[in-house]
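Quick one, T. Sequence first:
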Amino acid sequence: MLSFPRPAADREVSGKVFYHVVAEHGWLALRLTPGNGSRGFSSSSSHKRQQSRTATVNAVVAEIEETAAASGLVPNSRKGSAFLDATFINHDEVDHLHQPSLLTFDPRIQIFAVPAAATKIETWNHFLQVYRYPSLDPSTSDWRALDPRPPLPSWLTVFRLYANSHDLWATAIMYSPENRRDESILWVPHRWSSRPSAHSSRK
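Structure tokens:
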């Protein structure tokens, strides 16, 4: 889980101190099973166990927010939602996109996913808001020029990295805290190598 500190103005409106994101739900419910010299994935969790994990995630979110509120970081009169704010899905394979796990989460959570994963999620008719990652064109000199921009807070965004129309299988998360330099997280599944000519993020 990633918890991004909200700007002061956002805390006033939302009643929450952090914006909470969970990524890659598949790992919550799958285990590796070797066979025939290759890796495979098999589901190892019951629905009850998946619900328990979801409850644990929500409990962690609630504890973080309650602790922050007790420290005076949000007005006492404000009570924000204890639920996650969003989930990021960076691949459409079962080890990253695990339907039984995702369906235990509240339908109001915003889903941001690579296009192939978003298409699959929409067929489940569970989540109310499903959005596709935009792609950063290698010719773009500034990631802030992304269009369309995902409907995340103005200080947070996510996009896919491409080079010469080739998907680099890399997701960039950009966080722009108040009065500080932008911070980035490069999310790459498993292992990833790139040639020197591959696209690199720009600031």
